Amino acid sequence: MSIRDTVVSVFKQVAGDQGRTLAPLNDDLKLTDCGLDSLSFAIVVSSLEDELSVDPFNSADWVEFPVTFGDFVKLYDHSHA
Amino acid sequence: METPVLETLWDAVTRHGAAARRVLYDRHGSCTLSALAGGSLFTDLESLRGRCVLIATREQLATAIALVELDGVARRMVLCTPDLSATALAEVAAMAQADLIVCGAGEAPGAVPLEVRRLAAQPLAAPINRRASHATEWILLTSGTTGTPKLVLHTLHSLAGALPRAAPADERCVWSTFYDIRRYGGLQIYLRALLGGSALLLSAADEPPADFLARAGAAGVTHLSGTPSHWRRALMSGAAAAMDPKYVRLSGEVADQPLLDHLRAAYPRARIAHAFASTEAGVAFDVEDGLAGFPVSLLGEGRGGIDMKVEDGTLRIRSSRNAARYLGEGARPLEGGGGYVDTGDLVEMVDGRYYFRGRRGGVINVGGLKVFPEEVEAVLNADARVRASLVRGRRNPITGAIVVADVVLADAARAAGNPEAVKSELLDACRRALPAHKVPAMLRLVPALELTAAGKLVRPGA
After folding, report:
1. Which CATH superfamily is domain B9-345 in?
2. Which of the residues B231, B237, B396 would you substitute to probe the A interface, choosing the one with the greatest number of A C-beta atoms within 10 Å?
3. CB-CB: which of B238, B394, B399 is closest to A67?
4. Residue B156 needs a FRET pair 20 to 30 A away by CA distance; which of A37, A49, B26, B392 works?
């Protein structure tokens, strides 16, 4: 599974668990418009840490907060590379 | 005539004059403080004199005004947080010995057997006697181990003793906060704004951060406060540039270095401060050097009326702003030895600076909200299939921590198989019984839990 597929599947899983409605995920979608709240994001980041063994938010190379879904995937793509 | 025993909030608000510029805004409307000189949200304020009042409004603006009106009038005000269940509200009412509940226009207070007062949406013009007759007790709610909130007794003095009373001389100051003002962190900002002579923009639950930031920008907010989690969410909204604050404040959670650096980049002209405060100990100190943690030089006695020390690895604070006590039967004393309050925050010194390392007793801080592991474990353990459970915090870069649970199943449940179904049913039970931030974000079934030599669960610092 590609990084993007993993990220998409974790977003869907967490949205389901948290009873939230996920907007259709595309690169330009703003994270704050995707339907997840802060707690759900927190769970997404921890789940991805378990799946991919990286936490880009704790890496020294982390330069900018992701704003769109595309930014978010890129953050993991770079950390995983 | 009775003489006021203490300066009230109304006295403090009117001392600065220019009340017409002093506006409280929320998402739906606003109210100038000058309107309260000749009007009230209550139809008969005088009849609340000496009463013990639960303030349980949905919107923050109604509470913001009720506090101004009732301080010095009511004997006791209880600031109810908006997430209280009907059961918890009834328990709070009983513990606080409330005899009246105040709710917003058109709101129903739920099944609480108390006299109900509904506030008007705007002050009703009427002659008002703002004479102070009571040193009003302010009761704040804080999380407890059992799921029933604990009641913490404060006074205006213990809440506001440390706050500056003078408005900045020649500049317009507009405060705002991501917090709800019915929680300690938000209440501090509310009092800062009112006592300091500035306007205040209130947040709303479920308001998208970009909308809030746009509102703050339009209202000319100069000072904005929130938890590190609030600020991360603001940065992730892409709308941080919608406002241009002079002062950025973080409290309620540990501020980490990456976040402080990102805020510095987003708001290069702002003063950026992270503050340490707790509901029980009051505000203790601000750090403005842009670095996480705090310098050792802050420890000691008599700095700004506050004494601080580190004992057994946790931070202890003594000041006149310590809450007086918890309310209710069997409430334990707040203070340990010598008037110091143990904050329960573990600190470690590295190169002349103290850094926060989690909480003693495993209390988990999820985005500024406290979670006691025992409260979640009680829900899990209530299921007959569970032999034991351990709930702990897992570090998280978005909310500081999330709640995770390890569960040992009883032999019969293990033999019956289908562990995934059991997990999901346990989580459903938690979702029914607990607010979202307390529900385990991850639940693992494990063969056994580690015990100490004394037979207690090993609780790692979260």
Report:
1. ANL, N-terminal domain (3.40.50.12780)
2. B396
3. B238
4. B26
CATH of domain B363-445: 3.30.300.30
- pLDDT tens per residue, range B67-112: 999 999 999 999 998 878 888 899 999 999 999 999 998 887 777 8
SS3 B204: coil
Name the 3-class secondary structure at B91: helix
Helix (H, G, I), strand (E, B) or coil at B151: strand
Q: Residue A59's domain is classified under what CATH number?
A: 1.10.1200.10
Q: Do B398 and A41 touch (CB under 8 A)?
A: yes
pLDDT, tens digit, 9 for 90 and up, residues B3-24? 434 689 998 888 766 555 688 9
Pairing of strands B76-79, B271-278: unpaired
pLDDT category of residue B258 using cuts at 50, 70 and 90: confident
| Chain A contact present for B140, CB below 8 A | no
Mean pLDDT, residues B176-203: 91
Q: How far is B267 from chain A (nearest CA, A)?
A: 14
- pLDDT tens figures, B196-227: 888 999 999 888 889 999 999 999 999 999 98
Q: Is B74 helix (H, G, I), strand (E, B) or coil?
A: coil
Q: Is the ipTM of this complex over 0.85?
A: yes
Closest chain B C-alpha to A1 CA, distance in angstroms = 22
**Where does residue B221 rank: exposed (0-12), middle (13-18), buried (19+ CB within 10 A)?**
buried
Higher pLDDT, A75 or A59: A75
What range does the domain containing A29 cover? 3-80
| pLDDT given for residue B455 in this prediction | 67
First to last CA, chain B: 55
The token duo for B95 is: 């513990």
Q: Out of A17, A46, A66, whose CB is closest to B236?
A: A66
Q: Do B237 and A55 touch (CB under 8 A)?
A: no
> A26: distance to nearest CA of chain B, Å?
16
Say what the pLDDT of residue B46 is. 93
Distance from CA of A81 to the nearest CA of B (A): 21
Show me where the domains of chain B are located: 9-345, 363-445
Q: Which residue carries 């949200």 as its tokens?
A: B41
On the CB side of B70, CA atoms within 13 Å amount to 32
Nearest CB among B232, B262, B396 relative to A46 is that of: B396
Mean pLDDT for chain B?
86
> Hey, do B9-345 and B363-445 end up sharing a CATH topology, with the first three levels equal?
no
Tally of structural domains, chain A:
1
CB contact under 8 Å between B367 and A57, yes or no, is no
